[in-house]
């Protein structure tokens, strides 16, 4: 019998597999023919995320900042001397991480889809190819995780929808990406135009209530004259706000399956890579003491919460506030963000913890004044 069966050969599953396969018998089930396809990611990550991945993916570009465009056309440039983010090819990152896990001894079963599992003295997993018995199961099966749903009423608090296209356009400023805020292109979220040399990655996310995001992407592409230059297009959804639980008897969740996504940016790799080593430590201990009860595994949730829970909760509170802003509020925010003192705070923005700078900015006197109409609206 296997020690661990991991459902999902994406980055969270492969990071867990590489770690646990050092001293355990690990099987990874992946429904696609390989890791990394289809791509559902802008590939914008920090150096810290690359370090935590344990591999060296191809870097498409290095970014030093962003141009934020408000609904009235005002733009504010936030930039620093050091690299803020790298743009990577997600399919390359995912396949390198799977290779590293295989090199550590994990077995990957591609084109095998997890269907369900039952828990008793061990776990019986039913798949498209038959099944497996295993001592424990890890759900790393992404945003629509079936393993997460096996733990009862366990959907994410909210889904947002994302869509993006690579267009054959060379952006004039290769070290800045551009973001649009407002209801024209991205109600409830923002757009991105990421320069990648001879192409640009153009995408956006929207709140679920805004309907399918294709209409907004078409508008963004048309307004910029990109619509005849499309190379590829892909879409996906992102779970934000967390799930009710991330553990059960003989079962742990990580990555999108655990709802570990930064609510302000939609970035999932940083929280997944922070939580997964904790999952491996707790599971390793439970396997060696042969106590895989939900109670024993609950230590995972307490530990990841104390590491990243505060940032995720603060991010979700800010997201809910953001969703209440209308274009007029955003225009006022744009005026406020143009102030030198606020801009210099924004220059410090850390991609991995954007809510920390947002919190500092909210503490400025001017921000509180600007927030009064919004606060009144929230009360009504
Ligand atoms: C448009 C868009 C842009 C994004 N941009 C960024 C970004 O720039 N930076 C960032 O950090 N994050 C970004 N994200 C979020 C990021 O892509 C996810 O958080 C990340 O992929 C989560 O990794 P994961 O391993 O948990 O899940 P996934 O990458 O989704 O991997 C899950 C794997 O499980 C497999 N699977 C699912 N169900 C089954 C099953 N039943 N049986 C077998 N296998 C199964 C899937 O095929 C997949 O390979 C973006 C998301 C979207 C939609």
Describe this protein's structure.
The model has no long low-confidence stretch (mean pLDDT 92). A hairpin with a 2-residue loop joins strand 14 and strand 15 (199-207). Helix 1 (11-20) packs parallel to helix 6 and helix 8 (327-337) runs antiparallel to helix 11. Strands 1, 2, 8, 9, 10, 11, 17 and 18 form an eight-stranded mixed beta sheet that branches. The chain has a four-stranded antiparallel beta sheet with strand order 14-15-12-16, with helices on one face. It has three domains: 2-44 and 50-54 and 89-157 and 243-308, FAD/NAD(P)-binding domain, CATH 3.50.50; 57-88 and 158-239, D-Amino Acid Oxidase, subunit A, domain 2 (D-Amino Acid Oxidase, Chain A, domain 2), CATH 3.30.9; 320-379, no CATH class. It is an alpha/beta fold and 380 residues long. It has helices at 11-20, 47-53, 90-104, 146-149, 214-223, 269-289, 294-323, 327-337, 340-347, 354-362, 365-379, and strands at 2-7, 26-30, 44-45, 59-63, 65-69, 75-79, 85-88, 107-110, 114-119, 123-127, 130-139, 158-167, 176-180, 191-196, 199-207, 230-240, 247-248, 251-253. The structure holds flavin-adenine dinucleotide. The site of flavin-adenine dinucleotide (FAD) has 37 residues, from helix 1, strand 2, strand 3, strand 12 and strand 16.
Topology:
Blueprint: E1 2-7, H1 11-20, E2 26-30, E3 44-45, H2 47-53, E4 59-63, E5 65-69, E6 75-79, E7 85-88, H3 90-104, E8 107-110, E9 114-119, E10 123-127, E11 130-139, H4 146-149, E12 158-167, E13 176-180, E14 191-196, E15 199-207, H5 214-223, E16 230-240, E17 247-248, E18 251-253, H6 269-289, H7 294-323, H8 327-337, H9 340-347, H10 354-362, H11 365-379
Parallel strand pairs: 1-2, 1-11, 2-8, 5-13, 11-18
Antiparallel strand pairs: 3-7, 4-7, 5-6, 9-10, 10-11, 12-15, 12-16, 14-15, 17-18
Helix pairs in contact: 1-3, 1-6, 2-6, 6-7, 7-10, 8-11
The site of flavin-adenine dinucleotide has 37 residues, from helix 1, strand 2, strand 3, strand 12 and strand 16.
């Amino acid at each position: 019998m296997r020690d661990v069966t991991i459902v999902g050969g994406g980055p969270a599953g492969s990071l867990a597999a590489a770690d646990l396969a050092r001293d355990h018998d690990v099987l990874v089930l992946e429904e696609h023919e390989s890791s990394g396809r289809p791509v559902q990611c802008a590939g914008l990550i920090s150096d810290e995320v690359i370090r935590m991945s344990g591999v060296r993916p191809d870097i498409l570009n290095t970014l030093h900042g962003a141009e934020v465009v408000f609904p009235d056309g005002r733009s504010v440039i936030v930039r620093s001397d050091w690299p803020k983010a790298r743009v990577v090819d997600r399919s390359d990152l995912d396949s390198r991480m799977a290779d590293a896990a295989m090199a550590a001894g994990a077995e990957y079963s591609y084109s095998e889809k997890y269907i369900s599992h039952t828990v008793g003295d061990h776990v019986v997993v039913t798949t498209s190819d038959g099944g497996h018995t295993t001592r424990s199961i890890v759900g790393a099966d992404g945003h629509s995780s079936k393993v997460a749903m096996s733990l009862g009423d366990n959907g994410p608090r909210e889904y947002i929808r994302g869509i993006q296209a690579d267009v054959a356009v060379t952006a004039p400023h290769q070290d800045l990406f551009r973001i649009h805020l407002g209801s024209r292109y991205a109600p409830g979220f923002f757009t991105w135009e990421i320069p990648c040399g001879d192409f640009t990655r153009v995408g956006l996310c929207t709140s679920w209530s805004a309907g399918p995001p294709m209409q907004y992407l078409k508008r963004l592409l048309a307004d910029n004259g990109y619509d005849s230059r499309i190379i590829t297009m892909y879409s996906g959804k992102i779970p934000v706000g967390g799930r009710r639980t991330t553990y059960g008897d003989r079962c742990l969740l990580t990555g999108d399956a655990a709802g570990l996504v930064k609510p302000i940016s939609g970035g999932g790799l940083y929280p997944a890579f922070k939580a997964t080593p904790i999952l491996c430590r707790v599971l390793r201990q439970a396997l060696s003491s042969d106590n895989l009860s939900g109670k024993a595994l609950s230590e995972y949730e307490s530990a990841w919460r104390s590491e990243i829970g505060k940032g995720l909760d603060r991010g979700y509170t800010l997201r809910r506030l953001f969703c209440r802003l209308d274009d007029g509020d955003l225009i006022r925010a744009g005026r406020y963000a143009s102030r030198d003192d606020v801009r210099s705070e924004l220059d410090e923005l850390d991609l991995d913890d954007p809510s920390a700078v947002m919190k500092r900015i909210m503490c400025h006197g001017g921000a509180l004044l600007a927030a009064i109409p919004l606060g009144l609206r929230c009360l009504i």
